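Hi U.,

Before I forget, here's the chain from the pilot set. I'm dumping it here mostly so it's searchable later in email.
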Amino acid sequence: MSPLSTHTFLLRWLTVAYKQKRFSRAIAFDIEGLLTLGRNKGLAAGLFNRLEYLWVSCTGPVTAQSDLYRLTYVIEQLKSMQW
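Structure:
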């Protein structure tokens, strides 16, 4: 697959997912942001790399993430415990 076909596929998939409300409202804003970025910057938006980063950061073990990510994770966990 060429970079252009990958970008086009991801842009269409995100558009359909956004219109069909496949994800919760909590991330609808993020999907909308990715769509805007992909439409405005085209291939330079790097949708594949951005989505791959999101996937790895959300599914990988916390210990494998960067220090900033782990700090943010700890802060969010403390906030969820009403600290």
